[in-house]
Design brief:
mainly beta; Leucine-rich repeat, LRR (right-handed beta-alpha superhelix); 4-stranded parallel β-sheet; 3 helices; 5% helix
C-alpha cells in the first residue's frame, strides 16, 4: 500500500504511476482531477484507491473510461464530482463504492448489471433524484446502503425491498420519500440492524411489519408525518 494522504499535493493525480501498487491512499490533499487511464496495462495491480477529501471536479460518467479491470474499492467522498452515476463502464469486481458528499445527480444506477459484486454503496449527500427501483433492490448481495441526503421521492412498483436479504444497514434519511413505508421491509429481519427513514415525507401509519425486525435493531423514523 502507498499512503500519501494528509499532504498538500495539488494538480492531477496519476493512479497508475507505479504498476506494482495495489492500494493507494491519496486522501486529504488538493488534487483537482484524475488523469485518464490511457496507459493501463494488464500488468497494473491497482485494486483500491482512496481520493476522498480532495478537490476533484469531473464527470462521474467519464472518470473511469479504460479503468483498471480489477478495482475492488473506491472512495471518492467529499469532492466535487458531478453528473449522473449512470455509466457505460463495467465494474465486475468492485465491492465497495463511496461517492458521498459530491454533486451527483440523475437516477440511481442499475447495480446488478454494472456493479454485480458490489456489497457496500454510499451515495449520501448528493442530488440524486427519482425513485428506488428494481435496479437497486434486485441486487441480492448488498450489505450496506446509504442514500441519505438526496432528493429521492418514492419506491417504484418494481422495488422489492425484501430481496435485499443480506442488508445490515440502510440509511434513506433526509430525502423526500413517501407516502408510505413498504411493508416488505419487515421481511429483512434476519440481518438488518440499522434502518434510518427519518426526515422524509411518510404519512399515516407506521407499518406493524417493522416490529418483525431484530429486537436490537436501530429504527429511526423521526421527522415524518405519521399520525398513528
Amino acid at each position: 500500500m502507498v499512503n500519501i494522504s494528509h499532504n498538500n499535493l495539488i494538480g492531477p493525480v496519476d493512479l497508475l504511476f507505479a504498476p506494482s501498487v495495489i492500494s493507494l491512499d491519496a486522501s486529504y490533499n488538493n488534487f483537482t482531477h484524475i488523469k485518464p487511464f490511457t496507459k493501463y496495462k494488464s500488468s497494473h495491480s491497482l485494486t483500491s484507491f482512496d481520493l476522498s477529501n480532495n478537490l476533484i471536479s469531473q464527470e462521474f460518467a467519464t472518470l473511469f473510461v479504460n479503468k483498471p479491470r480489477n478495482l475492488e474499492e473506491i472512495d471518492l467522498s467529499n469532492n466535487a464530482i458531478r453528473g449522473s452515476i449512470q455509466t457505460s463502464e463495467q465494474f465486475d469486481f468492485l465491492r465497495r463504492l463511496i461517492v458521498a458528499s459530491n454533486e451527483l445527480s440523475g437516477a440511481l444506477p442499475n447495480l446488478p448489471s454494472k456493479f454485480p459484486n458490489l456489497v457496500d454503496l454510499d451515495l449520501s449527500s448528493n442530488m440524486i433524484t427519482g425513485s428506488i427501483d428494481g435496479g437497486l433492490t434486485n441486487h441480492f448481495i448488498l450489505k450496506t446502503l446509504d442514500l441519505s441526503g438526496n432528493m429521492l421521492t418514492s419506491f417504484d412498483d418494481a422495488a422489492v425491498l425484501s430481496n435485499l436479504l443480506q442488508l445490515t444497514h440502510m440509511d434513506l434519511s433526509d430525502n423526500e420519500l413517501g407516502p408510505t413505508i413498504p411493508r416488505e421491509i419487515g421481511k429483512l429481519n434476519d440481518k438488518l440492524i440499522m434502518l434510518d427513514l427519518s426526515n422524509n415525507k411518510f404519512v399515516s401509519t407506521i407499518p406493524s411489519e417493522l416490529g418483525s425486525l431484530q429486537s436490537d435493531a436501530i429504527v429511526r423514523l423521526a421527522g415524518n408525518e405519521f399520525d398513528r
